[in-house]
Design a protein that fits this description.
binds guanosine-5'-diphosphate, alpha+beta, binds magnesium ion, Translation initiation factor IF-2
């Protein structure tokens, strides 16, 4: 990390080391030649000799494996879908219904593990990944940090209720993020269902249904009976083909944390959505202010896996601490590099917190005056 020994500092300033030690002693600091000084102390000593410490930027980017993907390296990846919509319009029910279409979980006898994401394998061999996010929050948070985890938004609108406040919010979030919307007009089984009214309301918000000559895909579904769910999944596959989603699977993994927690037995664990490269057991990584090493990985059904490629969510064990949802996750060359980057980030964070505190206390001081 950013430290310099007394001897090095003397050398850089072109003064005798003994002189530095002596001056520091007068300042009440008992030091030896090989003692490390942090940036603040080094700054104080340097200024005694008329120097200023220039902080040389820590090049994090150089340590994070940078790789320019060539077109030949890119491979098709599954779409990552977030379900959004007004409360009670059927988001959870729809996701449940979609999971029933999962051929793999069907074989395994249902999903036991909750990792906040579902990798759904379709009967036609296709694959769609759903994020079971608290919807808007994770989406908005990650977007605020300039990262994007969703390729397509499924907007659930209850056919007996129409567009409501949170529907409007979801539309504006998706538009701001430039993420295409596929509309699931839900609860079509209900007597009061009026899908045409929903289409009209959608068109008033710039989402003109294909059946009305626009380019917004709308599918009538019932999460309760399962009607239309297969068609919805087909439409998502179609949409994903249009988007030509690709990633290079043959490089160190990068992705984002979807959720994280402290597990009693396993320590800090987090669901990571791999977005490029392939994550492997044993990989060293940095995530937020923590370093880590992949001790084990579980897929969305709680099954141990050794590899996770682009668009695949896995629960990772081996974080140095509990990361935050939305933190970037990057595999690096070694544990040493991971620690270097993590330490640097932690220091930056402390500095920022400290200066925020100092500012507040100064503000308080001036207010009192
Ligand atoms: P969420 O708040 O958007 O996650 O909505 P939920 O999935 O919790 O559903 C809210 C309520 O609507 C629940 O009582 C569901 O049983 C019901 N519901 C959801 N989908 C349908 C549907 O397609 N048809 C009918 N009749 N009820 C539904
Ligand atoms: Mg719900």
């Amino acid at each position: 990390t950013e430290a310099i020994t007394v001897g090095d500092l003397a050398k850089r300033m072109g003064v005798k080391a003994a002189e530095v030690v002596g001056r520091m002693m007068k300042m009440g600091m008992m030091v030896t030649l090989n003692q490390s000084l942090d940036t603040d102390d080094a700054g104080i000593v340097a200024s005694e000799f008329g120097f200023e410490i220039e902080r040389v930027g820590f090049e994090e980017e150089g340590l994070l494996a940078a790789h320019e993907d060539s077109p030949e390296e890119m491979e098709t990846r599954p779409p990552v879908v977030t379900i959004m919509g007004h409360v009670d319009h059927g988001k959870t029910s729809l996701l449940d219904s979609i999971r029933h279409a999962d051929v793999v979980s069907g074989e395994a006898g249902g999903i036991t593990q909750h990792i906040g994401a579902y990798d759904v394998h379709l009967p036609n061999g296709g694959q769609v990944v759903f994020l079971d996010t608290p919807g808007h929050e994770a989406f908005t948070q990650m977007r605020a940090r300039g990262s994007q985890v969703t390729d397509v938004v499924v907007l659930v609108v209850a056919a007996d209720d129409g567009i409501m406040e949170q529907t409007k919010e979801a539309i504006s979030h998706s538009k701001a993020a430039g993420v295409p919307i596929v509309v699931a007009i839900n609860k079509i089984d209900k007597p009061g269902a009026d899908p045409e009214r929903v289409r009209r309301e959608l068109s008033e918000r710039g989402l003109v249904s294909e059946s009305w000559g626009g380019d917004t895909i709308t599918v009538e579904v019932s999460a309760k009976t399962g009607q239309g769910v297969e068609e919805l999944l087909e439409m998502l596959q179609l949409q994903s083909e249009v988007l030509e989603l690709t990633a290079n699977p043959n490089k160190p993994a990068r992705g984002h944390v979807l959720e994280a927690r402290l597990d009693k037995g396993r320590g800090p664990v987090g669901t990571v959505l791999v977005q490029e490269g392939t994550l492997k057991a044993g990989d060293s990584f940095v995530c937020g202010t923590f370093a880590g090493k992949v001790r084990s990985m579980l897929d969305d059904r709680g099954k141990p896996v050794d590899l996770a490629g682009p668009s695949i969510p896995v629960e990772v064990q081996g974080f140095g601490g509990v990361p935050e949802a939305g933190d970037e996750f990057s595999v690096v060359d070694s544990e040493k590099v991971a620690r270097q980057i993590a330490d640097h980030r932690a220091m930056k964070k402390r500095e920022a917190e400290l200066s925020a505190k100092t500012k507040t206390s100064l503000e308080g001081f001036f207010e009192k005056m």
